[in-house]
């Protein structure tokens, strides 16, 4: 593994920012439609070292699907893997993250994995709490520990905007409720889910979360256990097989690290035993992944020999 420093981040971000022209900012969540494609940032949080970053590193974005890794970790900690995997499977799909198609094949209505919307909704449905506020609280509690920042919270406007327009996610929920995969109030579940997706932070905070996974669940500075190693391992494995939606295979070949993206344009990547990286660039390709983010990770992975394969 080759050392990475700030000049690498500056060089490569400069080199790849032009790719934003090839992408499109998401607009199915109205509050995200005004994100600016030229906003770019990257941060790297080494284990036992000093954070480096460049670009608009203070800019706060919502983590969207990256929250699926956190909610999975919460559910695994609360219920154990047997209970979680009785409700959601462990297999990748070649469908888009919002797809309803696979709920009708093979095991009826059991979502294929926790990184697609159906699976993430089933996982969030398992999180303990007497009401939506307590459930969101459980997710925020872990996010704050991982980011080492008590101030992290969700963006109320983005959450509300998605909640009001989540027709497809509502459909997935009704389908799964019919088959007993989820229980309780669908509106309450969507409230929790849209709030977890709207958790807002900058690349520096997200890189620290990735660094905890790179350190097998331990704090990258103090080495204290924050997530059980088995839970970290399961989350990272899903990041490899399903983290970049139906582009996970291509990403595994071209980059080769566990990673998770969100439609806001953020990606977090895990460089085992080395550190965590977070990239932000809201212009997305047709699979819903940041074009600048993917290019930057491809360049860095090749130069620094990051691939785990
Ligand atoms: N891919 C994503 O980031 C999707 C998250 C988004 N909140 C949704 O459910 O549609």
UniProtKB/TrEMBL annotation:
Q: Does the keyword Metal-binding apply?
A: no
Enzyme Commission numbers on file: 3.5.1.2
Report the domain of life of the source organism.
Bacteria
GO BP field = glutamate biosynthetic process; L-glutamine catabolic process
Q: Which UniProt keywords apply?
A: Acetylation, Hydrolase
| GO MF annotation terms | glutaminase activity
Q: Which Gene3D superfamilies match?
A: 1.10.1500.10, DD-peptidase/beta-lactamase superfamily
The record's note on quaternary structure and interaction partners says: Homotetramer.
Q: Which family does it belong to?
A: Belongs to the glutaminase family.
Q: Which PANTHER family match?
A: GLUTAMINASE (PTHR12544:SF29)
Q: What name has this protein been given in UniProt?
A: Glutaminase
Origin species:
Piscibacillus halophilus
Whichever gene encodes this chain, its name is glsA
């Amino acid at each position: 593994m080759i050392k990475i420093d700030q000049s690498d981040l500056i060089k490569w971000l400069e080199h790849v920012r032009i790719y934003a022209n090839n992408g499109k900012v998401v607009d199915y969540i109205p509050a995200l439609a005004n994100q600016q494609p030229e906003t770019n940032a990257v941060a790297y949080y080494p284990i036992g070292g000093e954070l480096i970053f460049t670009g608009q590193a203070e800019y706060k974005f919502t983590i969207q699907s990256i929250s699926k890794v956190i909610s999975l970790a919460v559910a695994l900690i609360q219920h154990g893997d047997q209970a979680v995997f009785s409700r959601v499977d462990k297999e990748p799909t070649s469908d888009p993250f919002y797809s309803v198609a696979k709920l009708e094949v093979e095991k009826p209505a059991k979502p294929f994995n926790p990184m697609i919307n159906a699976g993430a909704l089933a996982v969030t449905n398992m999180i303990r709490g007497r009401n939506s506020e307590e459930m969101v609280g459980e997710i925020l509690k872990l996010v704050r520990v991982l980011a080492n920042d008590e101030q992290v919270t969700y963006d109320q406007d983005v959450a509300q905007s998605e909640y009001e327009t989540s027709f497809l996610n509502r459909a997935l929920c009704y389908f799964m409720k019919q088959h007993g995969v989820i229980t309780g109030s669908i509106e309450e579940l969507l409230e929790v889910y849209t709030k977890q997706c709207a958790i807002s932070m900058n690349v520096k905070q997200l890189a620290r979360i990735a660094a905890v996974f790179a350190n097998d669940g331990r704090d990258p500075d103090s080495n204290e256990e924050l997530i059980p190693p088995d839970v970290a391992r399961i989350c990272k494995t899903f990041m490899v097989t399903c983290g970049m939606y139906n582009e996970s295979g291509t990403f595994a070949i071209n980059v080769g690290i566990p990673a998770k993206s969100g439609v806001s344009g953020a990606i977090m990547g895990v460089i085992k035993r080395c550190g965590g990286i977070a990239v932000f660039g809201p212009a997305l390709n047709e699979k819903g992944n940041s074009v600048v983010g993917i290019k930057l990770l491809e360049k860095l992975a090749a130069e620094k020999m990051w691939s785990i394969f």
